[in-house]
Design goal:
nine-stranded mixed sheet; UDP-N-acetylmuramoyl-L-alanine:D-glutamate ligase; 12 helices; globular; five-stranded mixed sheet; homodimer
């Protein structure tokens, strides 16, 4: 395999997050599924925004968070995603480039606004997300630059791309180009409700060998195999023949292949503030470790470290340099 | 004095903050005065934005932060300030209303954009601010609703209002209306560079009895009296005949009148993250305490509590209900 110019290229929904601290009764009053991600239209987004308290606005997007996290570990990264040329789109573009991510997807000049995710953070640190996809609906296969994908050791795709109709084609195109160039393709299942919407397609992606590395949390994995029993789901996952990475919040993570299982504990934290981005940043550390040639357990440790950083403050982007944090904790030389 | 419909009405620059973690060498490279606030034009603001890393966007504005903080303690509050009807202006408006502040200043329909403050936060938690005043330049005496000021026990004014030319008239108009109605007027000196720009006018405000309560930090107070010696400055301050409140970061605060001095320690913190808003939130707690009839030392304790909350996270608005926090700490019944 030729050397790659980029370690990881992500394709995902380009979203700006609007977060507010809230109480559980607001979730109940607004009919929100705690811990999940719901798609909303613009009118509903406006109504929910009016129901939110004081907000903090931070660039987000699951795949984009992962790519930014990997860049913070020192990986060479790129991102493909669609914003509109509006204030939020400019903020997203500034922020992802500010950490050195190569991001050149042309913004939409007209049509829907840049995507927003309204995140209600409850006192237990759990986040409940409401996404207005906006300009993300305009992402299509033409936005996938074949040279970029061929030049990336890993192409990372978010399951949420199954929501905007044309993004799925971008996903498949990228996966095929990556494999033709001898590269690897990673997928995150994103959300248990997302798995519920696209279960058969996600399973087919694995079974058709379109993806090599799959990230899931325990809820997503149980949803994928429609079982309440975690061990049953893990056994089924192992038999898919992919490199499977399962996160379990404070229970840590397990990495499964057909031949082996590695368990790694969660990284200790002082105070849980906001779980937004926990899974995204776990994937960031894991993928950064993979591209540095770390063994699977060390990849999971880097993931745990990054997840621990991001859940101790508001927002899904790291507030410190993750490479430095890893060195301070003896996880990188 | 008649009962007031509002406890505190603030008049200030309506600003949205864009904060980024940064290193000291960025400050040096960009020629920024660490810990201070500089006014910048739009071109300079854009250049500085491009020099910032990953950002967090949170409503700010010194006086607005204070009013939001007082509301979080349970005070009945209102705010007068000028935004444009753009994305940032809508965010500012949403956020200040979300906590129950009465805010009805009509937004500018054209002209400059809503004000932005680019805040560089260094690893020591210190913040260095660069403000593009934008729509704040349009605030004028017509925006001061006499009935609102007459209905407010305290009118709170920020020294930064001396920067946009017409806001000064709004300030004086409000102070005169408040006093004619038997109300109190409070002023914060805002920033030592601001004091340097308007020293004579700030001294005249006190000596002409336009203000009754004055907040300053130790740097602002030394600048006001052009002395390096803190005790000399305090003695001069005491002789102005106002209720003087001086904050000294980790050294706590002192409250001085012609007759007495009260010293109150800083509230202990676990980890300093970002000092943005420390002085604003101190004033919030102090004023909230005053309107609840607390004695001066207890007012300062409420100020210290609010300042401690806000410096332990990014941004100048509280992330918890300050009334609840005060009750948990035995400072409110």
């Amino acid at each position: 395999m030729a050397n790659a110019k980029f370690d990881i290229t992500g394709i995902g929904n380009a979203i700006v997050d609007t977060l507010a601290q809230t109480d559980d009764d607001v979730l109940a009053r607004e009919g929100l599924n705690k811990g999940g991600m719901m798609l909303v239209d613009e009118a509903r987004a406006n109504a929910l925004y009016n129901a939110m308290g004081q907000t903090t606005v931070i660039s987000g997007g699951s795949g984009a968070n992962t790519i930014v996290g990997a860049a913070s570990f020192g990986a060479k990264t790129a991102f493909i995603g669609k914003v509109k040329d509006d204030a939020a789109g400019q903020e997203f573009t500034h922020d992802i480039r500010a950490i050195g991510v190569h991001f050149t997807t042309p913004p939409a000049k007209d049509g829907a606004a840049t995507a927003r995710c309204l995140v209600f953070v409850t006192p237990d640190g759990e986040r409940t997300m409401n996404t207005f996809l906006g300009a993300c609906q305009a992402l299509n296969a033409n936005d996938v630059d074949p040279a970029l994908i061929r030049d990336s050791a890993i192409t990372y795709l978010e399951g949420y791309l199954w929501d905007p109709p044309a993004a799925k084609e971008a996903f498949i195109k990228a996966a095929d180009i990556a494999h033709a160039a001898g590269r690897q393709v990673a997928l995150t299942l994103s959300d248990s409700f997302c798995v519920d919407r696209y279960r058969a397609e996600f399973l087919k992606l694995m079974r058709d060998k379109k993806v090599d590395i799959v990230f899931a949390n325990q809820h997503e994995l149980r949803s994928l195999y429609e079982t309440a029993d975690f061990d049953t789901a893990v056994t089924a996952f192992r038999n898919e023949g992919v490199l499977g990475v399962v996160t379990r919040s404070e229970l840590g993570s397990i990495v499964v292949t057909r031949d082996e299982t590695k368990s790694v504990p969660a990284f200790p934290i002082e105070k849980l503030v906001d779980t937004t981005g926990a899974g995204d940043l776990f994937a960031a550390g894991f993928l950064a470790g993979l591209t540095m040639g770390k063994d699977l357990a060390d990849c999971a440790r880097l993931g745990a470290l990054a997840a621990a950083e991001v859940i101790q403050h508001v927002g899904a982007r790291p507030q410190v340099n993750l490479g430095n944090l890893a060195r301070q904790n003896g996880l990188l030389p």
